[in-house]
């Protein structure tokens, strides 16, 4: 599965239809992490976005999704 390119991410941009980016927290080798606001739940969240130059790499997409799944499992106490 290939992720589609996102428009430029800046303060106020809504990604995934529900996460409004407030500010960038940091950037690593393949992703950027933002402080964001979940617009449906009215809660702060951290959102990690794969850098556009890596969207074509299936190996990084797989790693990115696995990391997200592990993070959610830890959050739910599994």
Description:
With 78 residues, this protein is an alpha+beta fold. It is 23% helix and 35% strand. It contains one helix and four strands. The protein has a four-stranded antiparallel sheet. It is globular. The termini are far apart. The model is unreliable at 1-5 (pLDDT under 50).
Strand coverage percent: 25-35%
The major pleated sheet works out as: 4 strands, antiparallel
Q: From the alpha-carbon coordinates, what is the Rg to the nearest angstrom?
A: 13 Å
| Quaternary structure | single chain
Count of strand segments: 4
Q: How many distinct helices? A: 1
Helix/strand order: EEEEH
Low-confidence stretches: 1-5
Helix content: 10-25%
Q: What spatial order of strands do you see in the largest sheet?
A: 1-2-3-4
Tell the overall outline.
globular
Structural class: alpha+beta
The average pLDDT is: 85
Termini gap = 26 Å
What key attributes describe this structure?
single chain; 78 residues; alpha+beta; 4-stranded antiparallel beta sheet; 4 strands; disordered N terminus
Short description, anyone?
With 78 residues, the chain is of the alpha+beta class. The protein has one helix spanning 58-75; strands at residues 14-15, 19-27, 31-38, 43-50. The chain contains one helix and four strands; from the N terminus they run E-E-E-E-H.
Topology, element by element:
Elements: E1 14-15, E2 19-27, E3 31-38, E4 43-50, H1 58-75
Antiparallel strand pairs: 1-2, 2-3, 3-4
């Amino acid at each position: 599965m290939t992720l589609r390119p996102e428009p430029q991410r800046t303060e106020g941009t809504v990604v995934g239809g529900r996460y409004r980016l407030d500010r960038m927290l940091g950037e690593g080798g393949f992703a950027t992490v933002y402080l964001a606001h979940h617009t449906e739940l009215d809660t702060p969240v951290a959102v990690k976005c794969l850098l556009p130059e890596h969207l074509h790499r299936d190996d990084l997409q797989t790693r990115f999704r696995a990391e997200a799944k592990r993070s959610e499992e830890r959050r739910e106490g599994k």
